[in-house]
Design a protein that fits this description.
By secondary structure, the protein is of the alpha+beta class. It contains three helices and eight strands, in the order αβββββββαβα. The relative contact order is 0.19. Bound molecules: cobalt (II) ion.
Length: 160
Amino acid sequence: MAKRIIAKKGDDSLKKNCREVTVFDDKLWTLLDDMYETMQEASGVGLAAPQVSVLRRVVVIDVGDEHGKIELVNPVVVSMKGKQHELEGCLSVPDLWGYVERPAKVKVKAQDRYGKPIEIEGTELLAVALCHEIDHLNGILFVDKADKLMTREQMEQMRE
Ligand code: CO
């Protein structure tokens, strides 16, 4: 495994529509392993392949709940329910946080690293992470959707 470089806002790879994965080989497994390591080292809860400049529909998530490590290949949101409005950040936008409206509950269909169909349901932070990471695969950043963006300073002031 190896840590990869995280693309930052302004990088072209973050604006692209990513391609579907059709080959489930060791190159994909290395990508998934590297993405998980990169995400953990950066203390993130999710990472999408375009954030490491790979334009494929691949996502890793670990929000620290009972699901543990989640690997999603070709994920698609198949249903959404309710609403939540929480503060989000992104490893590709290290200096900004903002409130984004997301569904309270989402169901996602995807494939695992071997190409086997899987389904996952998320609420709370997992629902946010699923939506946030799938947005990345379509070239969308949370700052494009956030209704109030804050710098680190503004955030710290708010928390005091
Ligand atoms: Co992000």
